[in-house]
């Protein structure tokens, strides 16, 4: 994951994953299942590193914003 | 004086004679009605137009005759008059009113049987009265199925079904309707579940089906068909929710609520389907349904388990 994140730095690519702890390894959005529901974690810093901006509504829906 | 006595005697004699003649006449009319009925009955069975025409003429004449018999004081206290009337009306009912939920002919025939029974008929008449009532009640049952399947008229079907029970109870006061109730409400539930499963916008069908199937489960908790249909309907309700999500028409903040409801519905579906699965773990319908339910619930472990079970049973899935 770290390798993917460094390769995409500043390129405007959104990195999406579905692995526990992926946001800490460079993913911007990480899907997780909690109580049978699909949720997502959002890492704003990783998104910025990729050269992305996100809407506040979107951030409000995430379960874990760093 | 002698003349007056003669006149009075003649009048009294005439009155007695008239009453007797009238009594005999009414008895004759009962016999006549029975003869006409006996003539009509075999002709109805031949199923040819000319014979049926004659049969209708005979039965209508029999009806006129018997209607006068049951209002006459001499003959109205005879159970034979009322039973004969019931049988004559039964033929008319078969001709014109079998498919009618409300039929004055059928009402008359039932009330005639009740009247006959009230007059304490002999064993033969009692047994025939009972057979006739059972035939009429079966007619109501068949009508309830017809109203359901052909006319999609659940309310009228339910009325016909209740009439079936009421009529049958007159014939068999200790009748137990448990198995018939299960049969009828399963039919209603399955019928409307199929309609809903083909068109998940038809919420009326969904409601009718749920009410009927819950009645079945109230009577028989482990009814396979009811559990299966309930489960599939809840699953389809969840699918409908997912289908309602669109890129253009859904507020992103609503997604959580939709997902919450979807999970609730899928869990309800799971409860019902698991009851079927526990009885027969190789039931392909329940295995397939659980595969889709666990996929919806994002339960990877169970999803993979049922994915393998589907493979084992040769069930094709869409993923």
Which secondary structure elements does this structure contain, and how are they paired or packed?
The complex is a heterodimer of chains A (66) and B (319).
Chain A: H1 2-7, E1 16-17, E2 29-34, E3 37-42, H2 44-49, H3 56-61
Chain B: H1 2-46, H2 49-69, H3 79-97, H4 104-118, H5 123-149, H6 154-171, H7 178-198, H8 203-219, H9 224-244, H10 255-279, H11 284-296, H12 300-312
Helix pairs in contact in B: 1-2, 1-3, 2-3, 3-4, 3-5, 4-5, 5-6, 7-8, 7-9, 8-9, 9-10, 9-11, 10-11, 11-12
Structure description:
The complex is a heterodimer of chains A (66) and B (319). With 66 residues, chain A is an alpha+beta fold. Chain A is built from three helices and three strands. Helix content of chain A is 27%, strand content 21%. Chain A has a three-stranded mixed β-sheet with strand order 1-2-3, with no helix packed on it. The longest helix of chain A is centred in the N-terminal third of the chain and has 6 residues. The two termini of chain A are 17 Å apart. Chain B is mostly helical and 319 residues long. Chain B has a domain of 101 residues. Chain B has twelve helices and no strands. The longest helix of chain B is centred in the N-terminal third of the chain and has 45 residues. Chains A and B meet through helix 3 of A and helix 10 of B.
Annotation keywords:
heterodimer; A: 66 residues; alpha+beta; three-stranded mixed sheet; 27% helix; B: 319 residues; mainly alpha; 80% helix
């Amino acid at each position: 994951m770290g390798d993917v994140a460094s390769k995409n730095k500043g390129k405007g690519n959104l990195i999406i994953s579905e692995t526990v702890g992926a946001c800490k390894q460079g993913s911007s959005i990480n899907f997780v299942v909690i109580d049978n529901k699909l949720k997502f974690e959002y890492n704003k810093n990783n998104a910025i590193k990729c050269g992305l901006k996100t809407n506040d509504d979107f951030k409000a829906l995430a379960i874990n914003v760093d | 004086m002698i003349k007056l006595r003669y006149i009075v005697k003649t009048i009294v004699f005439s009155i007695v004679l008239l009453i007797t003649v009238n009594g005999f006449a009414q008895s004759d009319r009962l016999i006549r009605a029975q003869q006409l009925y006996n003539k009509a009955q075999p002709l109805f069975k031949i199923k040819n137009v000319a014979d049926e025409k004659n049969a209708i003429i005979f039965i209508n004449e029999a009806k006129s005759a018997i209607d006068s018999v049951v209002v006459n004081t001499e003959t109205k206290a005879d159970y034979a008059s009322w039973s004969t009337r019931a049988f004559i009306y039964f033929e008319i009912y078969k001709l014109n009113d079998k498919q009618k939920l409300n039929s004055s002919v059928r009402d008359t025939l039932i009330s005639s049987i009740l009247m006959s029974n009230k007059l304490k008929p002999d064993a033969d008449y009692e047994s025939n009265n009972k057979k006739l009532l059972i035939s009429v009640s079966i007619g109501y049952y068949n009508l309830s199925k017809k109203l359901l399947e052909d006319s999609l008229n659940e309310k009228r079907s339910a009325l016909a079904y209740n009439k079936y029970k009421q009529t049958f109870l007159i014939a068999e006061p200790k009748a137990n309707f448990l198995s018939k109730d299960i049969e009828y409400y399963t039919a209603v539930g399955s019928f409307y579940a199929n309609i809903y499963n083909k068109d998940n916008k038809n919420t009326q069908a969904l409601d009718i089906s749920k009410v009927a199937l819950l009645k079945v489960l109230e009577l028989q908790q482990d009814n396979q068909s009811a559990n299966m249909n309930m489960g599939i309907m809840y699953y389809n309700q969840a699918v409908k929710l997912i289908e309602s999500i669109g890129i253009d028409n859904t507020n992103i903040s609503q997604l959580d609520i939709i997902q919450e409801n979807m999970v609730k519905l899928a869990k309800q579906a799971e409860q019902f389907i698991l009851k079927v699965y526990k009885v027969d773990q190789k039931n392909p319908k329940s295995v397939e349904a659980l595969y889709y339910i666990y996929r919806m619930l994002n339960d990877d472990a169970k999803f993979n388990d049922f994915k393998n079970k589907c493979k084992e049973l040769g069930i094709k899935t869409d993923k």
